[in-house]
Amino acid sequence: MYPTPFRGQLARILEKAGRLDEAEKHFRELLIVEPNNPVVHLWLARFLDKHRPDAVDKALKEAKIALELPRRKSLPREKIEQVIWELQSEIEQKP
């Protein structure tokens, strides 16, 4: 198994390269390795919002999980709340 920092970088590189299924697989595997890491939940939320338009509800769920987890210095509460607000706005604007 890849170390967590490596897997996170790999997932983000795969995303940028357009290899979305592989990137999503690595983001989800990160959640298995670090289920209590709010950064990983937020990464997946942003990925889903950007690349899986039909999964905005799932993205919102991941962002809300990130908000409930113990805080990391690198991820302030306000940043997570902003993502949640954006996702909720997106859901409300759907026909």
Fold and architecture overview:
With 95 residues, the protein is mainly α. It has one domain: Alpha Horseshoe (Serine Threonine Protein Phosphatase 5, Tetratricopeptide repeat). The protein is built from 5 helices and no strands. The mean pLDDT is 91.
Query: Could you spell the SSE succession in H and E letters?
Result: HHHHH
Structural class call reads mainly alpha
Strand segment count = 0
The level of helicity is over 70%
CATH topology: Serine Threonine Protein Phosphatase 5, Tetratricopeptide repeat
Describe the sheet with the most strands.
Answer: none
> Quick one: overall form?
globular
Q: How would you state the average pLDDT, rounded?
A: 91
CATH superfamily: Tetratricopeptide repeat domain
Name of the top-level CATH class: Mainly Alpha
Helix tally equals: 5
Quickly count the domains.
1
> Oligomeric status of the shown chains?
single chain
In summary, what is this structure?
This protein is mainly alpha-helical. Helices cover 75% and strands 0% of the residues.
